[in-house]
Amino acid sequence: MVDAKMTANRPISPHLQIFRPIITMVMSILHRITGVGLYFGMALFAWWLFAAASGRTDFRFVSALFGSIIGQVILFGFTWALIHHMLGGLRHFVWDLGHGFALKTANAMAWATIIGSVSLTILLWIVGYAVK
Length: 132
Hints:
The protein is mostly helical.
């Protein structure tokens, strides 16, 4: 028979309130969040394509909505999510090749993903506005 006192002394399962956040854990969470964001962003992209195929009135409505301040913030976030998820995927690809598992290298690649995704997003939007 199992002693009730023995089960009460068992360790609790680790969770986010116990662990100190580290960069690779944050990157794992962000990769999942950006994946969900890309799902909804692609729905917006499909809506834009549908409006373009539907006619001038629908396209003007969707373009005006995406051209508003809120629309621009959503598109900026979608752009960041796309680039961040892509760079995170490249980081995972390097791991699949068997490289970058050392703690220092993994942390450096995580920081490079964050800095690179923010930098590339800002650069892409600057170029987009310059061309516009």
